[in-house]
Amino acid sequence: MDYAGSDTTTGPEADHQGPRSWQTDRSRAPAVTKIVIAGGFGVGKTTFVGSVSEITPLRTEAVMTEAGEAVDDFEAVPDKDTTTVAMDFGRITLESDLVLYLFGTPGQKRFWFMWDDLVRGAIGAVVLVDTRRLEDCFPALDYFESGGLPYIVAVNHFEGTARYEPEVVREALSLPAQVPVLVMDARKRITVVDTLLTLVGRALEITPGRL
Amino acid sequence: MTAAPVISAVGPVARAAAPGRRTARVRPYSLTGGRTRFGHVLLVETFVAASADPDEEPAPAPGGLAARVMPEVRAIVGLCRRLRSVAEVSALLKMPLGVVRVLLGDLADQGRIRVYGTGDATGRPDRALLERVQSGLRRL
């Protein structure tokens, strides 16, 4: 399972604190922004989202009308000439008038059609990496390298696997020096928050200041 | 309303709906850049809510898109008693994102759904917003 972090089974929109004040006031909406969590199948995207989300991660689906390739995992369910792409997402109310969404999205190249839409307006992307299947993150890296969106690489360290230093991973992935690489644990909230902070820091680095 | 957004078994891509299966489909060109005909921007994180109390909703104009997909429309408007993101509407109603965006766009164009946010959702967040997010994350 991609997602194994939930012990909450209290309905489709279980919020650990009940409805937020901003949800019930239709006269105004909070500022909202998003971060994309990209990576291969089973790398821990939904676990990552679930570790920090105030709601049990929700799943939304987009329909791709022409499947060009064989389908290799259950995130994409083939249906003749359509493929359904599932995205799990979570939400964090950072202030009463500021909400951050986290969207986990499968990394395969055939889903790029969706990403152009998904990344519009995003702070940036966390490319989640499993060192046992490094190649799974290549398409996501290719996409973000060419797209100009701020991104960082987060190695989701699985217990019982070899732990690599960030610089080793950087070299293996031929990452530019300015792209942050960190080793984290998608199950641990504090390391997930650190990862998000690293991305926001990176985005600030390359966002022009007021002139 | 015009017939531009085509959902479900309508148009050249029509297929018979098997029981219990979601077959709603949307022509990819019915929305461009997340923008509806009247310029509402509907990104996955965009907030929407019902404009009026859903119980006071008028009946939809016969023949329009909304009339053909009444149950879905009613479900969306009902869910939007609270502020919801586009993605939340899709997930909670188990409707594909593309379908939800077309229906929300239509409802927004009719004034039944309010779409929040500036029209400038295509750019990246500015420094002020990034700094607020940074502070917020540090407080977690």
TrEMBL record, chain A:
Residues 1-11 have a biased composition (Polar residues). InterPro entries: Gliding_Motility_GTPase, Gpn, P-loop_NTPase. Residues 13-27 have a biased composition (Basic and acidic residues). CDD domains: Ras_like_GTPase (cd00882). It comes from Streptomyces morookaense (Streptoverticillium morookaense). PANTHER family: ATP/GTP-BINDING PROTEIN-RELATED, GLIDING MOTILITY PROTEIN MGLA. Residues 1-27 are annotated as: Disordered. This is ATP/GTP-binding protein. Transmembrane segments: none annotated. Pfam families: ATP_bind_1 (PF03029). It comes from the Bacteria. One of its GO terms (molecular function) is hydrolase activity.
